[in-house]
Design a protein that fits this description.
The protein is mainly beta. Helices cover 0% and strands 50% of the residues. The strands form two sheets. Strands 2, 4, 5, 6, 9, 10 and 11 form a seven-stranded mixed sheet that branches. It starts with a strand and ends with a strand.
């Protein structure tokens, strides 16, 4: 019954910004780890950022200093603010979650997560 729905993707020029949203239904985002992942055609799904119920965050090396993950518990929504976008950031972005999770020192694999949205496309042109 858990549903995660992403929005906010689109096409942007290099150096631009986008803000992705993930709205949860029949689920409380503050109860678990929430994450953003990216997958390009023919490539493995790569972790972008994760946040847990305590507000602890981790970021992939390629986005540190440029992206910021956050959540609005009142709106039951996860966000990814994406700044200084590069063509290498192009891909399908997925929202995911796993209950009973605490962020540690390493970004979890996509295999760690149990619920997924269907994705939103981000395309960055040079």
């Amino acid at each position: 019954q858990v549903r995660l729905v992403e929005s906010g993707g689109g096409s942007v020029q290099s150096g631009g910004s986008l803000r992705l949203s993930c709205t949860a239904s029949d689920y409380t985002v503050s109860s678990a780890c929430m994450g953003w992942f990216r997958q390009a055609p023919g490539k493995e799904r790569t972790g972008i950022a994760v946040i847990d119920r305590g507000g602890r965050t981790l970021y992939g090396d390629s986005v540190k200093g440029r992206f910021a993950i956050s959540q609005d518990n009142t709106a039951n929504t996860l966000y990814l603010q994406m700044n200084s976008l590069k063509p290498e950031d192009t891909g399908m972005y997925y929202c995911a979650t796993r209950p009973s999770c605490v962020v540690g020192s390493r970004l979890p694999s996509h295999r760690f997560f149990t619920y997924w949205g269907r994705g939103t496309q981000v395309t960055v042109s040079s």
